[in-house]
Amino acid sequence: MAAYVTCRILNRNGNQCTAEAVDPSAELLICTRHLAEAQRLIHQAFQRASRAAAEVRQSHG
Q1: Cβ(33)–Cβ(43) under 8 Å?
Q2: DSSP 2-57
Q3: Is the pLDDT confidence value at 1 over 60?
Q4: pTM for this one?
Q5: Among 35, 47, 55, 61, which is 20 to 30 Å from 17 by CA?
Q6: 3-61 tens-digit pLDDT
Q7: Distance of alpha carbon 7 from alpha carbon 20, whole angstroms
Q8: Three-state DSSP class for 58?
Q9: Where exactly are the structural domains of the chain?
């Protein structure tokens, strides 16, 4: 049986998350909660970048 591998995310107090990593053999050891949060933040950043690019296109054309 494989060992229980925990998420490597630390909170602001420096305490490590104790949830199980989504993929224990992956380079990035992260639980489902933190993976979802990362995906949400990436999506928001992409939306902001897309809006900014659209504004630049409109101002130049």
Answers
A1: no
A2: PPP-B---B-TTSPBP-SBPS-TTSSS---HHHHHHHHHHHHHHHHHHHHHHHHHH
A3: no
A4: 0.76
A5: 47
A6: 789 999 999 999 999 999 999 999 999 999 999 999 999 999 999 999 999 888 888 86
A7: 6
A8: helix
A9: 1-61
